[in-house]
Amino acid sequence: MPTYIVTLKDTASPEEVAAAKKHAQDQGGKIGHEYSLIKAFSVTFPNDALTTLESHEHVKAVELDQEVRTQ
């Protein structure tokens, strides 16, 4: 299963972040890293359940986790 980075809206409260994590877990996702500088977490998630996470009211973006390189 691929891993995704889930970024939450800047206005999301700690309770709303927790609700988004629970939603991901309820849809079959496994939470990985929880970021502290931004409101985000990584989740290993089945492809077919991704759209339900993207439509969650507190989620800003869902992106495939991949390697980033600089020149």
UniProtKB/TrEMBL annotation:
GO terms classed as biological process: vacuole fusion, non-autophagic
Residue ranges occupied by any Inhibitor I9 domain in the UniProt entry: 3-71
Coiled coil segments of this chain: none
UniProt cross-references to Gene3D superfamilies, sorted A to Z: Peptidase S8 propeptide/proteinase inhibitor I9 (3.30.70.80)
InterPro entries, A to Z: PBI_I9, S8pro/Inhibitor_I9, S8pro/Inhibitor_I9_sf
Domain of life: Eukaryota
UniProt-listed Pfam families: Inhibitor_I9 (PF05922)
Single GO MF descriptor: endopeptidase inhibitor activity
Family membership: Belongs to the protease inhibitor I9 family.
Name of the protein in its database record: Inhibitor I9 domain-containing protein
Species whose genome carries this gene: Daldinia eschscholtzii
